[in-house]
Amino acid sequence: MFSKYTVFVKNVPIGGHNPVVIQSMTNTNTLDTEKTIKQIINLSNAGAEIVRVSVRTLDDIPSFKKICEISSIPIVADIHFDYKVAIESIKAGASKIRINPGNIGSLWKVKEVVKVAKDYNIPIRVGANSGSIKKEFEILNMPRFKALAESALEEVKVMEELEFNNIIISIKSTDAKENFLANKYISEKVPYPLHIGITEAGIYEDALILSSAGLGALLLNNIGDTIRISIAGDPIKEVLAAKKLLTLLGFKKGPRIIACPTCARTEINVEYLANKVKEWTKNIDEDINVAVMGCVVNGPGEAKHADIGIAGTKTGGAIFINGEIAETVLFEKLEETFKKYIKNLISERKKINTDS
Predict the structure, then answer these.
(1) Cβ contacts of residue 106 below 8 Å, gap of 6+?
(2) Statement: the pTM of the whole predicted model exceeds 0.85
(3) What would the mean pLDDT of 162-176 be, rounded to a whole number?
(4) Do 192 and 274 belong together in one domain?
(5) Considering only Cβ atoms within 10 Å of each terminal Cβ, which end of the chain, N or C, has fewer?
(6) 260: annotated binding-site residue?
């Protein structure tokens, strides 16, 4: 179930019946203000709605403050150990802070952080990952997924005892099944929004497969309010992958390009054309299924569930709408003709929606 509570990270609502929010994290040196701001702009342009920035010590605060002032999207302060850094990050303009209460130290330090968060009305993200399961739960020999979830619930309990409910919870494991079971368990226990992800998912291809399986399973079970696909490398790839996952699963508007797996009847390079169609439709923010099929023998029929498609011919392609061929053109006219039909399709939809 999606969370019952809605938490605002600046102007971005997380939880309730709001859309799933995409986030990522900068990998620049926070002291390099210009480089960090540039990366945040690039992440925002790619589709990130929230960006997390590491605030390591008090030395990072002046730069972090400037970053918060300039950024057009909410900035989350990632804090470890020092409660003073958490407090100063809030005062510097953080829209949310990420802490582990257990790492902050004495309860009075956590209280100080919570007090300032209340004063500034910003949420706190708490939780656990597979590397921070509390020893007392491991000693009880309970299943790891439950120990992971209970470790996070301990952090939530600290917040609740301080009468603080402006909370987002994050549970992440490197194991997709454990990750699913832990998030499912905690979603049934508390009403707070959940930030989901697979921690340390790996390099690009591995991270895509693991995160798609792990996060897709959660989202299809209505669990998860904000996501990050963790990839070792360029964070822009994280955002593009998250955006595509949400689109393909129907949680975000956009075109879905389907393509046949090819066979001996194929008369075009399907992979090449599918990539071209992907490029032609990249700026469309409507839910449209586009099919790219290798031949006209049974391509349109097999893809009649698509809104629009192209079936390959020896000299070009046949444009089909709802399984019926509308026009056959040469290669050099394919892009122009396809764009004309898809523009008409979008216009007709908008007209129907307006009239109704």
Answers:
(1) none
(2) yes
(3) 93
(4) no
(5) C
(6) yes
